[in-house]
Amino acid sequence: MRLLVRFLGFLFAAGTVVFLVGVAGVAGAIWHFSKDLPDYSQLQDYEPPVMTRVHASDGALLGEYSKERRLYLPIQAVPKLVINAFLAAEDKNFYEHGGIDFTGMARAAVLYAQNFGSNKRPQGASTITQQVAKNFLLTNEVSFTRKIKEALLAMRIERAYSKDRILELYLNEIYLGLGAYGIAAASLVYFDKSVNELTIAEASYLAALPKAPAALHPVRNRDRAVERRNYVVDRLVENGWIKQADADKARKEQLNVTTSRGNGAHTFAGEYFAEEVRRDIFERYGEKKLYEGGLSVRATLDPKMQVMARKTMVAGLVRYDEASGWRGAPSKLDISGDWGVKLADVKSLSDISPWRMAVVLETSDQSARIGFQPGRELGGAVSKQRQTGIITLDGVRWAKAASGPAKGRTPSSVAQVLSPGDVIYADPLFDKEGKPVEGQYRLRQLPEVSGALVAMDPWTGRVLAMVGGFSFDQSQFNRATQAYRQPGSSFKPLVYSAAMDNGYTPSTVVVDAPIEIDQGQGAGVWRPENYSSGKYGGPTTLRNALRQSLNTVTVRLAQDIGMPLIGEYSRRFGVYDELPNYLSYALGAGETTVMRMVTAYSMFANGGRRVKPTLIDRIQDRYGRTIFKHDARECRGCDAPGGWKNQAEPQLVDRREQVLDPMTAYQITS
Description:
In the C-terminal section; belongs to the transpeptidase family. In the N-terminal section; belongs to the glycosyltransferase 51 family. InterPro entries: Beta-lactam/transpept-like, Glyco_trans_51, Glycosyltr_51/Transpeptidase, Lysozyme-like_dom_sf, NA-bd_OB-fold, PBP_transglycosylase, PCB_OB, PCN-bd_Tpept. Its main location: membrane. GO terms for molecular function: penicillin binding; peptidoglycan glycosyltransferase activity; serine-type D-Ala-D-Ala carboxypeptidase activity. This protein starts with a helix and ends with a helix. By secondary structure, it is α+β, with helices and mostly antiparallel strands. The relative contact order is 0.08. The radius of gyration is 36 Å and the shape is flat. Helices cover 36% and strands 14% of the residues. The protein has 20 helices and 21 strands.
């Protein structure tokens, strides 16, 4: 009995020593790994890089700018379904544990021992809190050291922050494939929906992605993606978060993702406008604020007017270009084998809908069969669909030869214009009633001429529509703001304004007759003529001279009032920064932009007040605070305390500079 007691005492003593040594070892390890842990307090003020979004005046999305597709969503705005899907997939006990799931860790340790030496990646047992610690504060290194640091940080984070805050950080930081960070961006990228519109199947698929977004690609690895999605659906049922009937329906749902989600500017042909807004924000706030600041920009663009402006500009350019005849197909293609794959590799313009690139497959006198460029799936593979159409003789009537013996002749057969292998553009052919003829198309060619258009509210300077060229895909050079061209006779109202502000009236008579200007210094004699060369009206009023755009009267006027005065008015109106003292500049020989000319004409329309053009109404930061507003007018009475008490209505005080006498502005407009 005494021996038994001694033996038990020995075991107790030995156990105590081992326990104390173990405790000391654990304490030492904790101390060792805690020495250089990152500062987790930075999570409190975490501001992730968030994309800047630009909206049109009606709220429609115009553009997005970011280095990472990311939208930050407060946890209160995340639907319960989405939260449950991620908890089911990643950490069902999230709201119960203190940062570490010991059961999961034990399971991972057993699997690690079983797979030791097999070069298989160890299975993780990370809780959501541990993933937050790793994603924000540590690296992706696979080692016990990192796992220990991850666990220590997770326990500290759990003590410092609420569960909702930790979950909010996780749901907004995780990478979910296709360049999308966070659930809000992923929902838009994969399904073109807000998180509130996601179905059970869609939420389950997003929740399946964090472990391996590339391996669960919805097109390249569709079967595996569906399998993992259904696994998450099963976990939702198992945890009692959805009903069995809803789960059965979700499992049967097809995994349909948006094949392409381009810039919203394509919705209303606003690419040039969106790019100009991007440049404006870049100049105001810099690159970091633009691509990471999460700005919300309300642009001045009117989508309906923009569509009309784009259609009008394109129609005018095409009509002018087609009058010169058909220049021939821009390129040829070998149509043997699968022509679709070859055509898919040819760069086409994506912003000139309903035009589509096609290749001529066969021709005859009366028609040509064409094959349209196939699209690409989400994974980049060429679609297997092959769509064809017919170009009839009516579709090539305009295509007169632009050169050669047959120049100017209307084609009598389609084969005279097209041959197999020609890469062309075509759009639907319409009948006399304006209805598209099914299966029939019209030949198109990209115009060599380009142009620009700006539509502005003359009272505020808000640009309602802007077209910078035929196609943004073809050329990003914005001819409305960047192309300096001669304004020609459109400059004359500024000359007449300077004259009428300085003694002339609309009824002042000036002689319309030939004039010679000695330019001196060996430059010879300049003899400006009217557009209707050789026709002169003699004495005429300024009103008629401006109405008929008479060059000789304008030059005489400029001689009398002096080019320095005209240069001063051109600076006031913002047309030119400096105007040389040459009389030819009174006829618009200088160079300026469409935007500057539209701004100048707006000042005639609004009674002579200075207008500052803008493409942006308001900019808000990521917290909704307004940091820029174009309308800077003072509003007296807008902040009336105590509500409505029959006081006078609010007044907007307009302190903009009067650059032109209101009477002169009226007379010029008249």
